Amino acid sequence: MPGALDQLPPLREVVAAHGLDAKKSLGQNFLFDLNLTRRIARAAAPLENAVIIEIGPGPGGLTRALLAEGARKVVAIERDERCLSALAEIAACCNGRLEVVAGDALSIDLAAIVGDARPARICANLPYNIATALLTRWLETEPWPPWFDRLVLMFQREVAERIVATPSQRAAYGRLAVLSNWRCETRILFDVSPSAFTPPPKVTSSLVELIPRPRPLSCAAAVLSRVTQAAFGQRRKMLRQSLRSLAGGDAAEVLARAGIAPTARAEEIDVAGFVELARAFEDGRRGEPDEGSGRTDRP
User: What does the pLDDT look like over 33-50, one tens digit per residue?
Assistant: First the structure.
């Protein structure tokens, strides 16, 4: 009900009334620009039939926009107890369309909160200090396809570039790019100036969209995660060296099974190559070929 939302006081007044100075320890940077928050909300459209998970709503700028743009329901996860009363004021105007959950998003089972409600998606100006950890957790969701149909998330521009990077962009390409583009189609939607935030961060931010692939290349998420962590953890070294700890001292055989040269470096291997490498590690662990893999075409 946009009319009731319009009667709420301006966000700056809410912040002042509740003493909500942004805390660096919580990675908080608040958005007060209503045009910008509405633009972010529209990027997550269509909202009319969707349950939206918002992480770190703070005083509720984006929360208001999601509701005003017609979200069927918003579930706001907030660990800062100072913000709960401000969010409760929004909830009181929304006839049950806003549910506020007090807690840490890193430890909350979001799938359980959503239940059978579909479609469900995540739209958030993520707290910068946990943004990458949250994304990695969502990308490793099992089973796949996941409970969410889309992720629309704000990151620092540098992190956004790491999410969408390909091997041709060696400086940005790494573990996060492999995990993201293995299971999702990714793109940067638009940039946001530091001046849009309070307090302004020192860097530009970007809104990123990740759409889950219904049938990503088949491998175990946990294995791919370990392989990419080892490979990019020593990215200047050849893979035969950086993967030694995973291969029991000799990675040459595993690399050969994956069809990858032992002298290659992590930044030279595309997503499909890392999937083959993860599968080769799985095969070696089981001691037998991985039949019935359900492999699909390259992403």
Answer: 889 999 999 999 999 999
Name the residue ranges covered by the structural domains of the chain.
2-212, 221-286
Please name the residue that has the structure tokens 């040459």.
252
Instruction: List, for residues 193-224, the tens digit of each pLDDT value.
Output: 999 988 888 899 999 999 999 999 999 999 99
DSSP states of 154-175:
EEEHHHHHHHH--TTSTTT-SH
Cross-strand pairs, 30: 198
Note whether 160 and 125 are within 8 A (CB).
no
Transcribe 84-111 into DSSP letters: HHHHHHHHTTTTT-EEEEES-TTTS-HH
**Alpha-carbon distances of 169 from 39, 163, 182, 208, rounded to whole Å:** 29, 11, 17, 17
Full-model pTM:
0.90
The listed CATH number (3.40.50.620, 3.30.428.70, 3.90.1150.10, 3.40.50.150) that belongs to domain 2-212: 3.40.50.150
Q: For residue 93, how many other CB atoms are within 10 A of its CB?
A: 18
